[in-house]
Amino acid sequence: MENDGPQLIRDEIARARDQIATSAEALRRHMASSTDWREWVRRRPGLFLAGAFALGFLIGSRR
Question: What is the pTM of this model?
Answer without folding.
Answer: 0.56
